[in-house]
Structures are given as C-alpha cells and as structure tokens.
C-alpha cells in the first residue's frame, strides 16, 4: 500500500484536518479511498460522503406505493465496511420530516418506511434508537408528540413533524437505501436527510501486545502466503535482538527478527535455499521508540523496509520453486528455542488482515495486552509546552498549562476586545492568602517544582499575540501590592513599548521599538523573557534582542497582584503615561496570552479551576483574529469542497461542516470589527 491505513495513522504523522487517501486493508484487494480526516478532537473522525441532498422531498407513486431513495457514496460498500470494522465507534444521522406521512407505524403495525444497510439488510428502527426496537428517538426518550405512538410522524398530523437521530450500530452502517411507503395519500408529504458516515478511532492501529520474557510468544493459525506475503508492524524495544515472528514448513519457512541493535532481518525459504534480506540502520533501533517494518515477498521479488530507510530488494530466481508451503502455527515472539522478542509489537498486519494481539495476549502467560510508553515516540507532537499523557491505546496532549488548545496544543485561544472592555486575572483566589501554593507555583516559574516563598519573581516569561488599528492603548499590565509593575503599550505613533518598574529607580525602564508600526491591523507576536537584570524581546519572527535593566534597578518583581488585558482598573497610583493610554482602552484582538504558567484568556474562555481568578467587564468574544501567524490559511481549490473543481464537489450535501470548527479570520478595520465568514451547509 502506498497510502496510510487510516486517519489515525495520518494524525500521528503530525498531519492536520484535511482530505486524505487511506487504504484500510493495506495490501489487500480493496483499493484506496479519499476521506475527510477531522483531527480537532482527541480521537480522529473519518468521514465518507454521499450524494443525497439534505431535506430531499419524497414523491408518492400511486402504482408502486413505495418510493426508493438510493445513496451513492464516494467509496464502495466494502471500503466503508473496512473502515467501520476497525473503528471504535461510528454514527450516521438520519431524519424523516413528515406531514400526514407515517414512519414506522408504531406501536404494533408493519413499518411504512425502512432503511437498507450493510449486506443489503433491511432495518426497521430509526435514528436515536437501536436494533430490534421498532421505535424512534422520542419513543426511547418517552417524549413523542402523541404518547400513544413511538414516533412523532406515526401520529399522522397535518402539521410538519420530524423524527431524527443518530444511527450508531456500526455493524449495520452505512445507509445505502431508504424505502418510503406512506406518501401516496392526498396531502401526504415527506423529506429525508441522511448525514455522512463518521467513524472515530482505529482499533487496529493501536492493537498491541507486550512481551515481558524472552520465552513469551503468541500463536495464530498458519500464515497463508503461498505466492504472496505482505507483513507490516511496529515494534518498540530496549533489547538488542529477538525474533518478531516465524512460521515453519517441512523445509520452507518465513521469519522476521531483530538481529542486532541496528539490524532487522527478513528471511525465508520456498525450496530454493534460504534467502535473507537485512536492513542496517545508522541509528540504534533498541531506543524504546516505535519503529515500522514492512516486508513483502512474491514470485518476482522480496523486499524489506524499516522506517524511512532505503528499501532493500532481492529478485527471485528465474527458475525454481515459487510457493511458500507452511504447516506449523504462526508464532509471534519466541519459537523453536530461539531467543524471543522483548518489548512491544502493534498493528501487525499479514496480507491485509490485522492480527488481534490484544485478545490473544489476555489469555497467554508472559504476554500483556496493550503497550505503554507511546509518549517516547509521539510526545514531540505535543507543542507549545503541552504535556504528553500516556493512555492504554495511544496518548493525548495535556494543554492545561498552556495558552493553547486542541489535540496537539497548537490552536490559539484568543478573543476580540470591544472598546472599554477589560479582563483582570488575580494571582490569588478570592478569600485565600498570598501564600496559596497553586498560585505561587503557577506564577513563580515555568518549572512547577520551583516556588518563591514571598511571590517575588526573579524571572518571568510573557508571550502573546495581538492585532489592532487604534493607538495609543494598553495591551497588558501586571500590577503588584508594591509600586512594581510591568506593562506592554502601543504608543500614539503605533510603536510598541515595554515598561518595567521594579524599584530602585525614579523612572520606569522603557524598551521602545521605534522601527515599525504595530497598530497596522496585522497580527503581531510578542515574547518577553526576563531573568534577573537581563531581558530578551522577540517580535514576530525577527531575531531576539537583548536589553539590561539599569544597575540601580531592583531585579525582583515584588508581590505581583493582578494581570490586566485591554485596560487597567487598579486602585492606587498609576504611571502617568499608562493613565493617559488607558482611555478609551484597547480595541482589537489578543491571543495565546501566557505569563509563566498562567493563561488568563484561556481561563476566561475555558472553564477550569483557574476561572475563579478571572473578572471580565464587557462581553468577551472568542476569536482567532489575533493569532500570529494567521492559523487559518485560505483553502486551496483541491481541498475546498465548494470549489467547482474540487474532488469532493459531487458530495457536498451531507450536513457536516468541512472545516475544523474554528472561526475564520476577523480583523479590525477603521476601528470597527469586521468578521470574515466561511461557507457551511446547515442541516435544519
């Protein structure tokens, strides 16, 4: 196979939401298909579309008394079946809008309407219900319009009613046909909507077993690979050698093994004498990270590939035996007294069929189902300080101590600020003392193990992005219980200024960035790091610039109190320039604001334990308009489902948003907020 097996595999290559070609049976008989992979959640959604428009009217036929709606998918039924079989969960929305058109004829009649699923089986339940239950969702929830019936439409009202819900018994999906029966009477009308097939997760991709002793093994039925053998799997180990798998015949055999810390061997004999192919890696393979092996043998040649290393190929002899004749069981792990494999093997596929390692491991001594340690290989994808968290099948990224969101902590969390609006984040919770451990830990350092007893900061890290066309204004201000403060301002000229007052000097220390106008409506990134007297400032993607506080200045930020965004509302004396810039306040967008481990905007927009620290004046509207760089590039013609030349233009009606569910860009133009919308199809 030249394409990945699933959307799950693309996600763990670091890919983002888009259309991809997948080949769910690998080298099996099924060809590849194009699907939409939605990577915005912890688990990946795979979506397959069809050509039936939403709210398709159903016309009566007085002769046949049945109307048949056929759904044509962008894939064959066998291809979709391969996706649903390996998925953890699948669903498909279905809706019947009716006016004097009965649906299932509940409570005891023969259904007027049914749908046909996989294997051409008829099904007499509706969305929101389940197999063997002749009910709609309202019948399950006991809230039908007329309680005598189990579907709203079965009450036969002259007004429009609807029965809708998700079909989620994946063994019956997809819906291939709908047969409607009660539309031939005068006044009868009906409309049908069917969403795309959506499946989540890939059980095959994470199907794994851990071999805990060198004599451990799993056994399966004899491998049927007489003329063609295609084997692929992932392994992870700290051992320097061991047998991955082996199957024997009288003299024939096939074997894959780790020969040394840098060598993988594929050997076999079809009656012409043993053949061995070895791939040598320039780096250690026993590094406890996942490595991929692909081995193939047919009548013409044999090949072996490890990770992205060059493919090793061996041509078959022009004469001689070609059939691989095996009779023993297939052993995964140790066999025949050889040193077995110590470590983890997952996603083992042989001729397009995934072997269920987990189920066999549950009843086999010395082998455990699943595998830990995914973060050693995939933790790199948790960006922006996100923490990789081990899970039984896979991993997730914990973004709680970052200013980002999403499965990989790469989605900016930002908001639009109207004029006069402000946000205050108190560094200690209401009713608690300044010695509060959680606040002290988050505030003191990016290292959660370091705390400062009196909340005096020797160093801080501040990062955010913003966009505005109005100046002057206060972007961010950090107050204290003393006279210390820190501020980031946009001066009347549109230039940026960072202002520090840490005591010891009469006037604040100012860093002026005079070479460019920052109030130009474009998003700009600001990163400020202070360690003692040393300050490093980086704007956008320009090289960082170093500054130093004057010798007379203190090097500690004493007793920080609160962080303000948009405007400063603080009791006591405020710096004169900041007071002038404070009116009427900031208008624009702020995004990914983070001060040490505190993310005030995220705390305001995502309910967390830190939300009690936040006070907001005005309406905070979530937006990525301040993201830097712009996180939503324009769709290309190839991926835009509304483009006439798009590969998916034949299937745009399945009621599922194509994008990642995030807002398109908005900007500040002439002091007014302008929102750029993107096109979706709304199923009503």
UniProtKB/TrEMBL annotation:
Pfam families attached to this UniProt entry: Laminin_G_2 (PF02210)
Domain Laminin G: 207-371, 439-625
Signal sequence, renumbered to the chain: none
PROSITE patterns reported in the protein's UniProt record: EGF_3, FIBRINOGEN_C_2, LAM_G_DOMAIN
Annotated ranges, domain Fibrinogen C-terminal: 1-50
Swiss-Prot/TrEMBL keywords: Disulfide bond, EGF-like domain, Glycoprotein, Membrane, Repeat, Signal, Transmembrane, Transmembrane helix
Family annotation (NCBIfam families): GGGWT_bact
The protein's name: CNTP2 protein
Species assigned in the record: Aegotheles bennettii
């Amino acid at each position: 196979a030249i394409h990945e097996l699933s959307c799950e595999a693309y996600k763990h290559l670091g890919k983002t939401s888009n259309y991809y070609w997948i080949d769910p049976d690998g080298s099996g008989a099924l060809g590849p298909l194009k699907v939409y992979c939605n990577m915005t959640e912890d688990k990946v959604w795979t979506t397959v579309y069809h050509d039936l428009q939403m709210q398709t009217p159903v016309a009566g036929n007085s002769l046949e008394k049945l109307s048949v709606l056929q759904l044509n998918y962008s894939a064959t039924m066998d291809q979709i079946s391969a996706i649903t079989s390996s998925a953890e969960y699948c669903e498909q929305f279905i809706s019947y809008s009716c006016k004097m058109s009965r649906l299932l004829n509940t409570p005891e009649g023969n259904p007027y309407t049914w749908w046909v699923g996989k294997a051409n089986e008829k099904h007499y339940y509706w969305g929101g219900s389940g197999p063997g239950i002749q009910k709609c969702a309202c019948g399950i929830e006991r809230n039908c319009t007329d309680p005598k019936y189990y579907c709203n439409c079965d009450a036969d009202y002259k007004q429009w009613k609807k029965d809708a819900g998700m079909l989620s018994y994946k063994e019956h999906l997809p819906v291939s046909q709908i047969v409607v029966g009660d539309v031939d009477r005068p006044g009868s009308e009906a409309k049908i909507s069917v969403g795309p097939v959506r499946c989540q997760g890939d059980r095959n991709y994470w199907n794994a077993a851990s071999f805990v002793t060198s004599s451990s093994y799993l056994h399966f039925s004899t491998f049927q690979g007489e003329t063609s053998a295609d084997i692929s799997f992932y392994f992870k180990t700290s051992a320097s050698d061991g047998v991955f798998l082996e199957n024997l015949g009288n003299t024939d055999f096939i074997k894959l093994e780790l020969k040394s810390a840098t060598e993988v061997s594929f050997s076999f004999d079809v009656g012409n004498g043993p053949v061995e192919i070895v791939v040598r890696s320039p780096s250690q393979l026993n590094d406890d990270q996942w490595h991929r092996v692909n081995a193939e043998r047919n009548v013409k040649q044999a090949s072996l590939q490890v990770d992205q290393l060059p493919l090793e190929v061996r041509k078959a002899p022009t004469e001689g035996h070609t059939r691989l004749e095996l009779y023993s069981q297939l052993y995964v792990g140790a066999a025949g007294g050889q040193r077995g494999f110590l470590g983890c093997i997952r996603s083992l596929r042989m001729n397009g069929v995934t072997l269920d390692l987990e189920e066999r491991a549950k009843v086999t001594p010395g082998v455990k189902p699943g595998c830990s340690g995914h973060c050693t290989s995939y933790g790199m994808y948790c960006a922006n300080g996100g923490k990789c968290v081990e899970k039984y099948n896979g991993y997730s990224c914990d973004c709680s101590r970052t200013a980002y969101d999403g499965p990989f902590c790469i989605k900016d969390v930002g908001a639009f600020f109207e004029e006069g609006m402000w946000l205050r984040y108190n560094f200690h919770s209401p009713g608690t003392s300044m010695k509060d451990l959680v606040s002290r830990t988050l505030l003191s350092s990016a290292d959660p193990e370091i705390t400062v007893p009196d909340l005096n900061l020797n160093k801080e890290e501040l990062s955010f992005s913003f966009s505005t066309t109005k100046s002057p204004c206060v972007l961010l201000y950090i107050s204290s219980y003393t006279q210390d403060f820190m501020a980031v301002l946009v001066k009347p000229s549109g230039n940026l200024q960072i202002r520090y007052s840490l005591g010891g000097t009469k006037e604040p220390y100012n860093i002026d960035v005079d070479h460019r106008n920052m109030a130009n409506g474009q998003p700009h990134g600001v990163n400020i790091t202070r360690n003692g007297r040393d300050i490093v400032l980086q704007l956008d993607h320009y090289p960082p610039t170093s500054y130093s506080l004057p010798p007379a200045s203190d090097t500690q930020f004493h007793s920080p109190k609160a962080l303000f965004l948009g405007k400063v509302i603080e009791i006591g004396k405020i710096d004169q320039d900041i007071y002038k810039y404070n009116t009427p306040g900031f208008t624009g967008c702020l995004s990914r604001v983070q001060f040490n481990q505190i993310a005030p905007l995220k705390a305001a927009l995502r309910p967390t334990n830190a939300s009690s620290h936040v006070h907001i004046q005005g309406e905070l509207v979530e937006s990525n308009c301040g993201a830097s760089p712009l996180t939503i590039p324009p769709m290309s013609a190839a991926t835009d489902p509304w483009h006439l030349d798009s590969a998916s233009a034949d299937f745009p009606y399945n009621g599922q948003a194509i994008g990642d569910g995030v807002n398109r860009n908005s900007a500040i133009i002439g002091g007014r907020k302008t929102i750029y919308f993107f096109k979706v199809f709304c199923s009503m």
